[in-house]
Amino acid sequence: MSDIQLYSYPTSPYGQKVGCYLKYKQLDYRFVGVSPLSSEQIKFTGQRQVPVLQIGDEWKKESSELGIWLDQLFPERPIMPNDEARAQKIRGVDDWISQSLIPAMFRGAVEWQNAFNSIANGWRLARTVNIVTPLPFYVRLIWPFAVKRAPFIVRMVEQLDLNETMSDMMFRLEQEFVDHLNGQDYLGGESELSLADLSAFPIIANAYMTGMRSNHFLIDRPEIRAWAQRVARQLPANPLLVPDSFIKRSLV
Ligand SMILES: N[C@@H](CCC(=O)N[C@@H](CS)C(=O)NCC(=O)O)C(=O)O
Fold it and tell me: Under CATH, which number does the domain 84-246 receive?
């Protein structure tokens, strides 16, 4: 029986990052869905932020720190380079993912480009959450509208430059992603996969793999799709935190 538990919403991009670290490192763990309404499953932490990782009697939060913690405890299949300069670079790319790429994805949930698609996607996400922590029907119904007002999402989106249009922002991020590859196979200009690739993978692949209605920005760019396929080949067929039946498309 595994002594590692990952507490998260299945839809949290930060939780999905940690899921990818665990899956790449081939560690046996238990996923515990956290109720977004009560957070009761993580009451023992005295706070509401997910993901939380518990190993034995110890728990920690902050997704990137969790990856580094896992690498220290389980050095097999490392995700951080030993070399300090390269590790710093990976941390820098990971910060860009957490502070630019993920908030941009949340902006899409707040600033609807196509109301029909956004509502359909919101209901799909509510169904995903409902699998692990059942939600009352009316909560599922209002989910796409409630997400628009969720305080942590509003706070995250407010940190972006909202004078930049959504399409300009997506175009800029696409270019920045390619720049972070620097013509090499993996982020940070690395020839081997690292924490940064595993952090970015679910953000890039989730909407595509779960069949969301969207433009699938980033993944449509050939260099980024080729990168996503390289990463996907090193992960199980379902690298996300959703049941296998939610996977509608494969990258490989
Ligand atoms: N910096 C944190 C961000 C985590 C985060 O924003 N989690 C969101 C879910 S995606 C959350 O728990 N929001 C609820 C809250 O903060 O009350 C990390 O990398 O783990």
Answer: 1.20.1050
pTM score of the predicted model: 0.97
For ligand 1, which residues put their CB under 6 angstroms from it?
A: 12, 14, 48-51, 61-63, 98, 152
Atom of ligand 1 nearest to the CA of 50: 12
Query: What distance in angstroms lies between residue 250's CA and the mean position of ligand 1's atoms?
Result: 27
Tokens 């430059």 map to which residue? 161
For the stretch 104-139, pLDDT in tens is 999 999 999 999 999 999 999 999 999 999 999 999
Q: Which ligand 1 atom is at minimum distance from the Cα of 64?
A: 19
* Mean pLDDT for the stretch of residues 159-177: 95
Residues 213-232 have a mean pLDDT of: 92
The CATH topology of domain 4-73 is Glutaredoxin (3.40.30)
